[in-house]
Each structure stands twice: as C-alpha cells, then as structure tokens.
Amino acid sequence: MANLGRLLSQHPAEAAKGLLGCKLIRMFPEGELCVCRIVEAEAYHESEPGCHAFRGRTMRNAPMFLKAGCAYIYFIYGMYYCLNVSCGQEGEGAAVLIRAAESLAPSNLRLDGPGRLCRSLRITTELNGCDLLAKESPLRLVSASLKVGESVASSKRIGLSVEEKLLWRYFIEGNRAVSKARRTSKNS
DNA sequence: CTGAGGATCCTG
DNA sequence: AGGATCCTCAGC
Q: Is any atom of strand C within 7 angstroms of residue A78's beta carbon?
C-alpha cells in the first residue's frame, strides 16, 4: 500500500486488512528502537455495539474520532493497555485494534496479543492521541506489503459477545505470532 | 454517587 | 475456571 493515510481514511475493515504486513516502530525515550510487523488486527466502527464509540463520543474514546492514523490507547482489566489506530474520516468513530505483531529488531519481543504487545513496547496512555504517521513520533506506522505467498484470513472479533457475524478480525494466515488456535481460518 | 463489567493474560 | 485490578460509563 503506497499511502498509509489513504488506506486509513477508509472503512476500518479495509484499514485493518491493509495494516497487515505494515511496520510498527517504537522509539523509546532512551533512544532505543524496536521494529515489528503487524500480523493481526480488528476493525471497530461507531455503527455497531461492539465499538467503544457506539454510544457516541466520550472522554475515553475521543481519539477514535480524530483524523486517521492517530493512536487510541485504552486501559483494560485493571492491568493492560490496548493500541488502536484511528481510521475513517475525522469526526467518525472508527479504529483498528492491533492484536499481534512479529518482532523484527530485536526479534525476541512477545507481541502476540494486544496486552502483551503494549507491555513489551511500553505503550501506555502517555502516547494516547499521538500521530502515528508523523516521522518524529515515538510510535510510528510505516507502510509495507505482505510477503509473497502470504494471505489474509478473517474471523469474528475476539472477546466480544455481540456482532458475531461481522468477520472483522484479520490475520496473516498461519503466522506464528497469531495464537495457535486462531491462526487458521478453519478454527476461526 | 455507585457498581458492574471489560477489545486480557496468567496460573492452577 | 478464576483472579488480578482499576477505569469508565450508565443508571439512579
């Protein structure tokens, strides 16, 4: 995908699909750099009750309404953070949850799960709202394509008991950073 | 003001 | 299967 901004301005389901294979780059305050590759993502849109923005804008979900490409980071279960990328048009409550990534450099980080990804990359609400498309950002997205031979599969979203007919979870089929039970379309 | 529940993960 | 752990929002 040539232009990340254009990709993310689409419907979150398109954005989630297109984010697979893209790089996520974390620059720590001390200057250390981590590069990883997104392998699993879910779409959320204000039109459906699975979405935090379903009941309109609140203090917490406000970043979902920002222009495409901003971070929406929330705290959950008293313990974990989850990273989302705002998408769609400005004023539209839509985002993509980053569920898992492959650790490239260093190659030993555990990024297989939304909570683990944030813990390993030290992503907290301190980064909430930041522009992931800006070059100087401490957390940044860079466009990249899938590798030859890779394909995208989909399933219902994880951990929701509503809207289960929406197949808005996307993942790179067979990828090892996707949890074993959920990495094939057969099991999803 | 209150309390129920949550886009998770780890342990037993 | 259950607990950690606390923030958010709906409801009163």
A: yes
